[in-house]
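Possible regression after last week's pipeline update?

I re-ran a chain I had predicted before the update to compare outputs. Posting the input and the new output here so someone can diff against the archived version. Not blocking, just want to make sure nothing changed silently.
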Amino acid sequence: MRGAGELPSAVAQPAATGGEAGEDSRRGPAADTPMGSERMEMRKRQMSTTQETPGTAQAQHSTGNRGPNACCFCWCCCCSCSCLTVRNQDEERARRTSHELQAEGIPNCEESPAPTLEEVNAWAQSFDKLMLTPAGRNAFREFLRTEFSEENMLFWMACEELKQESNKSVIEEKARLIYEDYISILSPKEVSLDSRVREVINRNMLEPSQHTFDDAQLQIYTLMHRDSYPRFMNSAIYKNLLRSLSEKSIEA
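New output (post-update):
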C-alpha cells in the first residue's frame, strides 16, 4: 500500500491504438525476421520462377505452332486448319456436283431438218410460228441460253411432253420431276411464277395429271413472247441465220 505522497514506481504505458494494433498484427512474426532471411526468401522465389518459365514457354510454343491437324475451334482460327480445309473441299465438291447434275438435266436440242428461208422469215411474223417448228424452238433456245433463261423453254417443253402421257404412274413421276426441276425454290432452274400460279400447282400436285402445270406453262409462254421474243428477232443468232439462208438462196 502506497502513501498518499508517493508516486507510482512506473508510469503505466498507454494502450495501443486500434491502428497501431492492426499494424502490429499485420506485421506478425515476419516483421521480426532478419534481413538475411528476407533475401533468402527472395532468392528461393526467383529460382522457383526460373524453373517454371521453360515449361511455360514450351507450352506456349507448342500451342502457337499447331499443325494442320488443329481443330477449327483453335484459338488462332487459321486457314491451315484441317477442318476448314475439309469444309472447303466439301463445298467445292458440292458445287461441282450441282453443276454436273444441272448439265445432265438439260435435254439435247430437238432433232429437226435445217430450216428453210421461208420458215425463218415466218418466225418474224409471230411467236406462235416460231414455237410451232422444232427448228424454230432450237434457234430460240440457243438465244435463251445466251441470256441465261433457257429454263423457260425447257419447262415449256417438259409440260408438252407431260400432256402426251396417259400412264398414271408415269404422269406422277414426270410431274414430280418437273416440280423439282422448275417449280421448287431450291432448284437452280426455277422459273419465274407468281404466287397464284404456285398455289394452283401445289393443289394440283395432290393428284397429278397431264394438266397440272397448264397455268404455269401459259404464264411462261407469255413471258417468253413479251420479253425474250423481241430481243431474239434483233439478235445476231437470228440475223446471221437469215443472212446465211438468203445467200444460199441467191447462189442457187
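Follow-up from reviewer: compared with the archived run. Residues 1-35, 52-87, 93-107 have pLDDT under 50 and may be disordered. Marking as no regression found.
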